[in-house]
Specification:
By secondary structure, this protein is mainly α. About 75% of the residues lie in helices and about 0% in strands. It has a domain of about 35 residues.
């Protein structure tokens, strides 16, 4: 797991613990975090460089 994934997961878990998001939304966000890493790994193997946090922000907005 990348540092970025760890931080996003911690934020996601904290929001769930504080009752700011539902279990369903928590699960959906966690899937996006994992997908984000898979996407970046594939891009890196193809020689592309991408700022994954920008990509994630675009996907959720």
């Amino acid at each position: 797991m990348t540092l970025e994934q760890v931080v996003l997961t911690m934020i996601n878990d904290k929001m769930l613990d504080n009752g700011q998001i539902s279990e369903k939304l928590h699960s959906s966000i966690q899937k996006d975090i994992i997908t984000l890493s898979t996407f970046n790994t594939a891009a890196a193997k193809n020689g592309e460089q991408m700022d994954s946090s920008d990509e994630y922000c675009q996907r959720i907005s």
